[in-house]
Design brief:
alpha/beta; 4-stranded parallel beta sheet; about 230 residues; about 15% strand
């Protein structure tokens, strides 16, 4: 079995998702050098940081965290783009494992009841074939031992790709709408909303506001990356 595995690796080597050089043994998805160069946010206060401050005066967020800074150029942008538009779902698995291990150690989200990924509109899901946050959420669910709920929050309006919009238009956009089915399911629950990247926060704000239909629901937010 190992011989077969070595032969497959010889002819079909796994490449780093950032620099595209061959990964060595024990490296997964991203090589050690590129991982060390990722722009980590290094947030230590989960209640007072740039993520939670993004939503001040807009919606009530209990805690927020993002692993990386998302910039116009750089490794974080390449990774998110490859995950989102090139079906490299190994990136979602990689970040799910990384954040899952981190959060299981620091216990910051040990009191959540469930996780809910930001959904795609059915038309967009059919076109793309997958939600880029699903694999990320599945690994988080495994590490945190909390259920991933994908069938309660629905996207009921399709919007243009966020990266193709001007920043002001994205910030003021009210076209993205969500609908919470069976709101009572989330009564008195602490929900962790998860997504790939925060740009202006408008999408996550719309999701968080929809959970106001539930009684005494508490919302926290977790993403792979955050745009300053």
């Amino acid at each position: 079995m190992k011989i077969l595995k070595d032969l497959l690796y010889l002819f079909y080597p796994k490449l780093c998702a950032v620099c595209e050089l061959k990964l060595v043994e024990n490296e997964t998805t991203i090589c050690t050098l590129c991982r060390h160069d990722l722009p980590l946010t290094n947030f230590t206060n989960f209640r007072e940081n740039k993520v939670t401050k993004t939503f001040y005066g807009r919606t009530l967020i209990h805690k927020g965290f993002a692993l990386l800074y998302y910039r116009k150029k750089g490794s974080a942008r390449k990774l998110i783009q490859d995950l989102k538009y090139r079906n490299n779902q190994e990136i979602g698995v990689f970040f799910g494992n990384w954040l899952g291990e981190l959060l299981s150690e620091n216990k910051e989200f040990e009191n959540i009841d469930c996780m809910v990924p930001v959904p795609l509109h059915p038309k967009k899901l059919m076109e793309r074939g997958y939600n880029q946050v699903t694999k990320f959420g599945e690994r988080l669910s495994y590490h945190l031992d909390k259920p991933l709920i994908e069938d309660k929050l629905k996207r009921i309006s399709a919007t243009k790709t966020q990266t193709l919009k001007a920043r002001f238009e994205r910030f003021t956009n009210n076209d993205t709408k969500f609908e919470l089915e069976d709101a009572a399911f989330f009564n008195n629950k602490h929900v962790l909303l998860i997504d790939d990247v925060i740009t202006t926060g408008a999408t996550l704000e719309a999701c968080a506001n929809e959970f106001q239909k539930a009684t005494n629901a508490k919302i926290s937010i977790l993403t792979m990356a955050f745009t300053e």
